[in-house]
Amino acid sequence: MTVQYIHRKRVLIWSIDSAFSKSVKTILNELGIPSYVPRAVRIGGMCTGNEVIIADRESISFLPRPCLRERIILVEPRKHLYSFVKVLHTLAKCDEILVGIDPGKYIGVAVLAKGLLLYDNVYNDVVDIDKRLFSELYDGLDGDIDKVTVGVGVATIDDYVIKSITLYAEKYGFKLIYVNEHNSNKEHVVGLRTRSAYERLRIYGKTRDHVNAAIVIALRASMSLERQL
């Protein structure tokens, strides 16, 4: 599946963090958006006035002068979710972003867009939902919160973690749906494209279970929303 590519231009990725560059390229390629990670000696010749450059603040000062005329999307490699969402929001027509949260002692999170697992993690503290997950998502979308649906698995609504997540969602204005999390860590996810980072999680059983549960919760929230509509 390919997305509607808004800017019909070549995308160049320019970052001192090679692993980050590879992750961005993987996401764009999965979405059918052609992208390149050029060598330093070549990027100057690739800037023709018709490119989009994804660059971090640390490396932008090393861009050759001709490249400064291009459309530049500034990202932050240390904030993966913010960067991935900002790139997707800027380059492609993305009508919906699904967030799944598997609450508990270890909190599994997953962010899905266009059939792709955009971001996954396991947090040890519920405050990370505010400071990392929701904050980066909000900033990456530049406040375009109507695109976001958050599903949170619940066994009981009185749980402290659930209450905290509810308050955080209200703070950012995100749509929140409570989802039955029964067997969410065991349900097989079919047809979802994954980044290499998630593939590596497969060797860590508990981490995989939390992330898998978060993915299923996000999908259940989406189905619940469709039934409401």
Describe this structure in words.
With 229 residues, the chain is an alpha/beta fold. It has helices at 18-30, 40-46, 80-91, 127-140, 160-172, 196-201, 205-228, and strands at 10-14, 35-36, 51-56, 71-75, 97-102, 107-113, 116-123, 148-154, 175-180. The strands form two sheets. It has a five-stranded mixed sheet with strand order 7-6-5-8-9. Strands 2-1-3-4 form a four-stranded parallel sheet, with helices on one face. Helix 5 links the parallel strand 8 (148-154) and strand 9 (175-180).
CATH 4th-level superfamily of the largest domain: Ribonuclease H-like superfamily/Ribonuclease H
Which radius of gyration do the C-alpha atoms yield? 18 Å
* Architecture per CATH nomenclature, i.e. the level-2 architecture of the largest domain: 2-Layer Sandwich
Mean pLDDT: 82
What is the H-and-E element order?
Answer: EHEHEEHEEEHEHEHH
Largest sheet: 5 strands, mixed
Fraction in beta strands:
15-25%
